[in-house]
Amino acid sequence: MFSVRVKNVTKHSKDTVTVTFNVSFRSFPGQFVMLNLPGHEEIPLSLSSPDSVTVRAVGETTEALVNIQPGELLGIKGPMGRPFSIPNGTALLIAGGIGIAPLIYLHDYIIGRGGEVKILYGVRTSEELINHRRFENIKISTDNGSAGFHGNVIDLLKVEDRPDRYSRIYCCGPEIMLRKLYDFFKENKLLRKVEFALERYMKCGMGVCGSCALENGLMVCSEGPVFNGVELEW
Amino acid sequence: MLDIELCGIKMRNPLMLASGILGSYSSSLNRIAENAGAVVTKSVGAEEREGYRNPVLINYGDGFVNAVGLSSPGAEVFSKELKNFRGGCPLIVSLFGSSPEEIAHLTSFFPFADAFEINLSCPHAEKVGLAVGSDPTLVREIVTYVKKSTSKPVFAKLSPNVNDIVEIGKAAEKGGADGVVAINTIRGMSIDILSRKPVLSNISGGVSGEAIKPIALKCVWDLYENLKIPVIGVGGITTWKDVVEFMLAGAEAVQIGSAHFYSYKLFFSLKESLLAYVRKNEPLKEIIGMAHG
């Protein structure tokens, strides 16, 4: 473990911020860090760039993290975990809610190397949108119709696109959404092309405690958090 | 050539998964069971127990310091979880509790277990583990109670954080234990020099991994000299040479935990290496305790 200082806190909405560190990690999109907020808990968070995490307040620790000030110290273990693989053609990124965090990193990584990316970004209401104007090729869906397509991101995918024309598809969001996407891609025989970034409660974060084991015995922390569709048994 | 029989349990090799590592779910146990001689589950108590807040584990040069705090879903829930264990190898359920009656009652939840291990040695939980495992009289009483509650073999997992591990081992033997497991983690801690605070939420924890191997080896040596029941060696075993070393010191079987940090295929590679070893040497069961004159 080592410590970093908070350099910057960018507020996206009342409960979502991007915390930038004074250090940039040698990392890949999809990897996470175990971030320890002194006095609170240590939690796994996906990197949203080599030097930041994007986090929504959902519990005690994330609540405190959203209100952190520049200059404060954070404990970091990582970056850890298996990253997304890199596409050799156009990539489709499907995000639900705060699941956009690792996909921001992936988007910038692919664009920075001259690749093409399309994003489908689903949220409940337009207030939850994070920085969506920075993406060029993006379609938004909201559950209440306050912006973009009225409906969820899976319906948007069905009306908007032919997923088979993408070389690789990346999904991150609530597990219920990921499971529906899994079913959809399975039906369309595309699972092999699809990568899912999963989230689990973690204790150690380095593959020994076993608290994040999936139903098939794979460990989300050390063998994920990114899994190819064919590796999952949903 | 690697097969052994430990207190009536037939094992394809002497490599057992140590308690607390990858043992909370059947899915991970099934995976390890493909190559292990036996697996030991995460310790389970009567009631649900949350354990400590994160961070509960920190790695350093030669191993880990952990203070998970015996988190457990409770015996009833855990027995349901273990129903999905496919039986790839013998299953040993690790138990903890604060009194002889409490621990003995736990065995009734796991009729499918091949053996039980009593956790008398967790160094960082209140009222259980080492708290009941450092008093020889209490240890003897606990083992007696647990033995009465089941017909399966019962192992006592001992701690090095006591004045004399042999005394505790003898107490377990007198209580009727079928074997002793040595050692659990050694008390330790870690401090972050930038924030100037202890790293673990519980401040101190237990040290495991390669760093504790010589200590564990000496405990196994002493127990082998003084006890008649089998000794199961655990503590820092990482390579096949470590396995051989522990068996030479007197261990009939070994348990491996922290080294799974390096690979989940550890048991497969250790098994293959040991096969190569026994092709040039005698079967493993014949080298047990050979280092003693």
Q: Biggest interface in this structure?
A: A-B, 29 and 34 residues
Q: Share of helix among residues of chain A?
A: 10-25%
List the secondary-structure elements of chain A in sequence, H or E: EEEEEHEEHEEEHEHEE
Number of domains of chain A: 2
- What is the CATH architecture term of the largest domain in chain A? 3-Layer(aba) Sandwich
Q: What is the strand tally of chain A?
A: 13
Q: Which stretches of chain B are poorly predicted, pLDDT < 50 over at least 5 residues? A: none
Broad structural category of chain A: alpha/beta
Q: Note poorly predicted spans of chain A.
A: none
Instruction: Please name the fourth-level CATH homologous superfamily of the largest domain in chain A.
Output: Nucleotide-binding domain of ferredoxin-NADP reductase (FNR) module
Radius of gyration of chain A: 17 Å
Short description:
Chain A has 4 helices and 13 strands.
Describe the protein's architecture and organization.
The complex is a heterodimer of chains A (about 230) and B (about 290). Chain A has helices at about 60-65, 100-110, 155-160, 175-185, and strands at about 1-15, 15-20, 30-35, 40-50, 50-55, 75-80, 90-95, 115-125, 140, 150, 170, 195, 225-230. Chain A is of the alpha/beta class and about 230 residues long. Chain A folds into two domains: about 1-80, Elongation Factor Tu (Ef-tu), domain 3; about 90-195, Nucleotide-binding domain of ferredoxin-NADP reductase (FNR) module (Rossmann fold), CATH 3.40.50.80. In chain A, the strands form two sheets. A seven-stranded mixed sheet of chain A has the order 10-9-8-7-11-12-13, sandwiched between helices. In chain A, strands 1-2-5-4-3-6 form a six-stranded antiparallel beta barrel. Chain A is globular, with a radius of gyration of 17 Å. Chain B is an alpha/beta fold and about 290 residues long. Chain B is about 30% helix and about 20% strand. Chain B is built from nine helices and 16 strands. Chain B has helices at about 25-35, 75-80, 100-105, 130-135, 135-150, 165-175, 215-225, 240-250, 265-280, and strands at about 5, 10, 15, 40, 55-60, 65, 90-95, 115-120, 155-160, 180, 185-190, 190, 195-200, 205-210, 230-235, 250-255. The interface of A and B includes residues 34 and 217 of A.
